[in-house]
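An instance noted here:
***
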Amino acid sequence: MSSLSAGKHTVKVNFTDGSAETTLTVAQKDTKDTGKTDVGKKPASKSAKTGDNSNLIAWFILLAASVCIVGSLRVIRRQRRR
């Protein structure tokens, strides 16, 4: 769609049992000039944004708490068996 010029375009799709035709209207791209330029502005970070925004420390704390709970339960069960 980004390669189409602004205006009306007809699209026809052929099937084994017939065809369908429609008209698409592509609007002109809005180009507003805000007057602001980012000349000399450096990016905040050179590392790529991967989309992973999870807090790694929180996951390690949760892991440590889980290990402590499982360990405590094992100790309690061993003491009850004796």
The beta strands are 7-15, 18-26. The CA atoms of residues 17 and 39 lie 58 Å apart.
